[in-house]
Description:
single chain, mainly alpha, 2 domains, two-stranded antiparallel ribbon
Amino acid sequence: xxxxxxxxxxxxxxxxxxxxxxxxxxxxxxxxxxxxxxxxxxxxxxxxxxxxxxxxxxxxxxxxxxxxxxxxxxxxxxxxxxxxxxxxxxxxxxxxxxxxxxxxxxxxxxxxxxxxxxxxxxxxxxxxxxxxxxxxxxxxxxxxxxxxxxxxxxxxxxxxxxxxxxxxxxxxxxxxxxxxxxxxxxxxxxxxxxxxxxxxxxxxxxxxxxxxxxxxxxxxxxxxxxxxxxxxxxxxxxxxxxxxxxxxxxxxxxxxxxxxxxxxxxxxxxxxxxxxxxxxxxxxxxxxxxxxxxxxxxxxxxxxxxxxxxxxxxxxxxxxxx
Length: 322
């Protein structure tokens, strides 16, 4: 187990370093730089002044040299300042990260709470009326574009009925009280939940159907176990193994944010922050935000590996596991 943890930590650090260089390089290859944006906003800036600023910020040096300078500061905990917000990067990221954790974390938990039971029910009686009804529902969720669903919810509950706000956050509106604050999250959470139920339900259905065909399920039934006992004691744990992989991959997506949904509902989360940082050539903010999403994806994969051993003890951490 200890060898496995250290191996995963080493691999994760290598991935983060490679990703940081790749992201930094791609950002540097984008047309224009922060000084070009300053020139656009200040027509009185001279060519000599722009050249001095590029030298001051190190933008006249090669990409690799600039990256190594950034990496040296990052190792000591200095991730630089955000050019767009004129504040340290982490002071900008934390509020957006908290907003995204509440929004996408809630929708993720609710979606799994609905999708997994639906997938199990559909798999218990495949090709029945219940299965076809569930499939119709999940296919509708997969097929509907998230932006259209968000606009439909706003039109229905904000414009026609007028019972929920169309966007924003409780803090921005100065709302107080639990419901006054929670109602700003209802529509975006509903939009993300409905959009993600279908995929997880389909994975759960396919995995459960495959598991129910195995010999050990027939043996459990031959012993006289009820359908509930067969599903909960034997089939469910094995069926969750491939589904766990999909859930782990979605973990990083949670904190990189749903850009379209956050934009439509004017929600200040990580997705919108990353988009603004990239469009504004805010190297430090974009780099740290994307690396944070990478780190959480790696953490999700590690948690999935641990979950595998709980779901199936035969997949324990052997001595030679990497």
